[in-house]
Amino acid sequence: MKINEIRPQEHIFTEKLKTLALIPKMLYFYGKLPVLGENSTKEGAQKGDLAQELTSSLLRKSSERGLERPRTVAIVGSRKNTAYGKEVAYRAAYEAAKAGAVVVSGLAYGIDSIAHRGALDAGGITVAVLGTPITEIYPREHERLAREIIDRGGAVISEYSQSDLPAGKTEIRTRFLARNRIIAGLSDVVVIAEAAARSGSLNTAMHALDIGADLMAVPGDINRLNSEGCNRLLSQGAIPYTGPDALLGLLFPERLARKKSKKKDRESEILKQVSLFAETEVEQKVLMSIMTGLNDGDEIIKKLELPATDFSQAITMLEIKGAIKALGANRWMEV
To answer: Residues 241, 264: one domain?
Structure first.
């Protein structure tokens, strides 16, 4: 497998690392670094399109012609996760990747590997950052996961070359802490899914705060050791992770604004149609129900607590006026 090497400032995805206090001199990676824009959709990235094959220098020049850096979220946490942490991390990664965000993590046991898996299962792109030389995938049990990340259009990155071996156990630990700054540095939002009071994930959180990335923490059981770190972050001002919508709102605020605008337009259209076609209170309630997605007559009667005769009269008048159309089997749709 080919080892690529670039300086952080040479690629639109990694140039964000210039915000770090200690900028990596060089990055070594397998696979493709994510980029969005001309000829580079998420589907294209998975297929290895032309834009992904450009050299790093050309990518930076091409950024002026419409290529963009994808929104990126880091999802990290305890190596000894609980079932709760697994569920939260997997869904967060899945929904973020499905929406088009890149998911970054550290390939470690526990929450990290769960986040990578969630992104892959969503058909998205994920990037793993190592604390070991690029040729030393760690842990070894995750070599297959690393290969899948690469094959599916993502990348495995390290700031250490194959010859850059650590001097001893102390340096190994230092390097794993150092890689946390890269995970945070690549990300627009950092989510701590589960963390004990002395978790290494809190080091990632510190780096997120240093560079101004949005920091989210998942609220946890106050009696559970694995939740102490997250709950402490929340008490210090981290944004509560209350579900995928909260994360997507930070990653794609413009989409949230459009969604609210469409919802407001839809509500306005419903009120306009109801005032135009419905003459009685029962007709108004029935038409409102149908226009908001309830199209089964029996369910409408039950929800509105209407006598069947009143419903039958209202539905007949609305159909005559052209507001609704029968679908058969006592089901209705707006026209």
So the answer is: no
